[in-house]
Amino acid sequence: MMSIRRVLLLYMFENSGHQLASIAIEKAIKELDPQVETLIVNSLDYTNPRIDRVVSNIYLAMLRRTPEIWDYLYDNPKVVRRTNRTTRIINRISSAKLERLVNSFSPDTIVCTQAFPCGVMATYKERRGTDIRLLGVVTDYMAHTYWLYEEVNLYAVPSEASKNDLVERGIEKERIQITGIPIHPKFASRQDRNELRERLNLNPHLPTILIMGGGQGFGPLGETIRCLDELDSHFQVVVVSGMNKSLEKRLKEEKVRMKKPIHVFGYVGNVDELMEASDIIITKPGGMTTAEALAKGLAMVILCPLPGQEERNGHFLTERGIAQRAEDAVEVARIVGDLLRDSAKLSSLRSRAREWARPDASFEVARLVLNGIEC
User: Mean pLDDT in the chain?
Assistant: First the structure.
């Protein structure tokens, strides 16, 4: 009798890109092999439920009020060296708590879509001398130092550049596979855009600009809309404010004074449809949002990347001509105006996005997981 195969997926923070990546991988695993048993767990909430919300709030507050501090802390070799002992102690304590979960679920493979649980499970492997298979799935275009562990059997990364960066940091190339960033399989599907726009109460004949500020609604979304509203071109705007309820309320109050049609959404579950219905996206370059937008072939305008991982994502995208970057809302309007006036430039940027898209990345990761189990 064949034993049940199990995969444990670990992430940090609810409503985050790391959680969405875990869900996407689980979905792909189930489609490829419905018999595999999976479990997705917020590792920080599991090991330290009382501080999960505190850590999340401190992180968000730092990004909003003092982003320069996070910029200094992020992947800083001095900080890494000075905090190495503390990091190992935290990982050891957390791994002891996660050990109960591992023992009860008995996974064949552990998949981590965030560096913290990856470090915790690497410490668990080292401490217990276990050969349990550990996969690190990097959901930004460049990994940082806190991903680097000898106990990780395989890294799934977005691109050749990501792989080369890890090799330069000392990871053997045999332990790295290029898969893309795992997004939900629904982003690979296509719909009739006119029918979709009508169903979303959008004008099927107007170019559509999608504005997103991530799950927390970061960035000058209101100012961006006001600058776009001054353009002579005819278009409609769709804005997603995420979990930011106050921003959603304010935008809905302001849109009645705008000349352009403005459609305001809060936290939504149909980002794939909103992207399918759009021509241009204005967003900060989170790994998941970027991968989703590329899969939908959107012309991308980057605005206000968060320090650290998003700043690196932004450099990756602009250096390769995949996206254009704006420093403020005024420049956003200028870039959008140019794209709307120059259909060839808009078409070229959308084609560039499709060239770099990896819509089946979740299945690539899932195959790595399943092939490892079968071995």
Answer: 86
Comparing 168-172, 237-241, 308-312, 333-337, the range with the smallest average pLDDT is: 308-312
Distance in angstroms (rounded) separating the CA atoms of residues 137 and 114: 7
Q: Which residues contact 33 (CB under 8 A, 6 or more apart)?
A: 5, 370
β partners of residue 303: 326
Closest among 266, 265, 313, 263 to 292, alpha carbons compared: 313
3-state secondary structure of 268: coil
| Domain assignments of the chain as residue spans, ordered by start | 6-183+360-374, 191-356
DSSP letters spanning 203-227: -TTS-EEEEE-TTTT-S-HHHHHHH
pLDDT at 197: 95
pLDDT of residue 241: 86
Q: How confident is the model at residue 174 (pLDDT cuts 50, 70, 90)?
A: very high
C-alpha 103 chain-centroid distance: 30
What is the CATH code for 191-356? 3.40.50.2000
**Cα-based torsion angle of the residue sequence 42, 44, 49, 52 in order, rounded to the nearest 10 degrees:** -100
Assess contact for 157 and 166: CB atoms under 8 A.
yes
> Helix, strand, coil % (nearest 5) of the chain?
55, 15, 30
Burial class, 50, CB count within 10 angstroms (exposed 0-12 / middle 13-18 / buried 19+): exposed
Q: From 143, 178, 172, select the one nearest 158 (Cα to Cα).
A: 178
Enumerate the β-bridge partners of residue 110. 8, 134
3-state secondary structure of 13: coil
Which residues does 183 contact at the CB level (< 8 Å), separation at least 6?
A: 20, 21, 24, 288, 291, 292, 295, 359, 361, 362
Q: Count CB-CB contacts under 10 A for residue 93.
A: 14
Cβ(48)–Cβ(56) under 8 Å?
no
Same fold, 6-183+360-374 and 191-356: yes
Question: What number does CATH give the domain 6-183+360-374?
Answer: 3.40.50.2000
